[in-house]
Design a protein that fits this description.
This protein is elongated. Helix content is 75%, strand content 0%. The protein is built from 14 helices and no strands.
Length: 260
């Protein structure tokens, strides 16, 4: 969720440390242990807003949607002035994402429409991206995450979702034989996260299929600067497909001589 990332503010140091530990557990998929940590804190501090929000997030990650929704509803109903408006809207967005995961689309759309009453708010666009992802509509998802970044350019989560959506859209176009569309999406992914080697490798592969040798080698060069081993694996995985690039790649320093 969005709201939990900025919490752990006013709780005692020991509680803050324990909540940070719970977050670490959740980050490696140990949701039950993370939830148990929150429950221990709530036994000691039943009104701890931080522990309640973290627990709601961990419940949603564990796909215990009904329990997560009940806790989100309780927090939103009882927190009052303890929540500032941005955090309250973050919690509403997090709750909406659980509604979507639970298949409660009508309620999801009601929440998204309410948030969308503020045209500057990126949250309804982020929810639109999640809905498009759930529908497998990667083009629409990418458009939604672009809208988020127009409103909050530093949103790293939206940046990552945009990258993922572009890569999925490119893969779908490639599977359908729409090579120019695939190349366009992979090139867009390269611009979104220039430090992500797989985007460059995907672009190189599509450009190879299109017979655009110079662009294929240029994309390989970008990839090798980030992950030389991945490029070696790509060249070795399909020698026949890549043979006409091999000498050029060796000369350009992209990979060592491997042909026998």
């Amino acid at each position: 969720g969005l709201a939990w990332a900025g919490f752990v503010r006013t709780v005692p140091p020991d509680a803050g440390t324990r909540l940070s530990g719970a977050r670490l557990l959740a980050s490696i998929g140990k949701y039950d242990e993370a939830i148990a940590t929150c429950d221990e804190l709530l036994d000691e501090q039943p009104d701890s807003l931080d522990a309640r929000v973290f627990k709601a997030t961990f419940l949603s990650l564990a796909e215990r949607n009904d329990a997560a929704l009940a806790l989100y509803d309780d927090v939103l109903a009882t927190a009052g002035d303890a929540l500032d408006e941005p955090t309250r809207r973050d919690l509403i967005q997090d709750r909406a994402s659980v509604l979507l995961a639970a298949g409660r689309r009508a309620e999801f759309e009601e929440v998204r429409a309410e948030l969308a009453r503020d045209p500057a708010d990126p949250r309804p666009w982020a929810l639109l991206g999640l809905r498009a992802e759930s529908d497998g509509d990667w083009e629409r998802a990418a458009s939604a995450y672009r809208a988020v970044l127009e409103r909050t350019p530093e949103d790293d989560r939206a940046n990552k979702r945009l990258l993922y959506s572009l890569l999925q859209a490119g893969a779908a176009a490639l599977a359908d034989g729409r090579l120019p569309q695939a190349a366009k999406r992979f090139d867009e992914a390269r611009l979104v996260r220039p430090d992500y080697a797989p985007s460059h490798l995907q672009a190189a592969d599509v450009r190879r299929r299109m017979g655009e040798d110079e662009k294929a080698v240029a994309a390989l060069a970008d990839a090798v600067a980030l992950d030389p081993e991945a490029v070696r694996e790509l060249l070795a995985a399909d020698v026949k497909a890549w043979v006409r690039y091999h000498d050029r790649a060796v000369l350009a320093g992209l990979c060592p001589e491997t042909r026998r």
